[in-house]
Amino acid sequence: PVVDLPGPTLAAYYGCEWCLQAITARILGIPRRLRPTVTAKASATSGSVPKMANIGRCDLFRSEDGYEVRFHNFKAGELAECMVSNAQRISPVGEAGWQEGDLLEVELLRGEEFIEEA
User: In 3-state terms, what secondary structure has residue 22?
Assistant: First the structure.
């Protein structure tokens, strides 16, 4: 099979993350690889589109209380920061956003040993 992933850098990444990994796992008859997750406190309030799942790239930091997460906005010119971020979050369908201080499940893009202090 041939898979074409056109579009901006993040769109191609998300296409690989959501679609290509699932297709490859199914063809090979293996389980889809899941990333390790941690629970982190949101550093700011944010909204999302409740009709679909959204992937948000973010930076995760260690704090006295555990982890804190700061989300990036690639539409506001933070594309480079998105590409080097250390975590991401896939929102559940139906979620309209979160408030500052809410606890969110975040996927690690690097090992926990690489998460820096806030």
Answer: helix
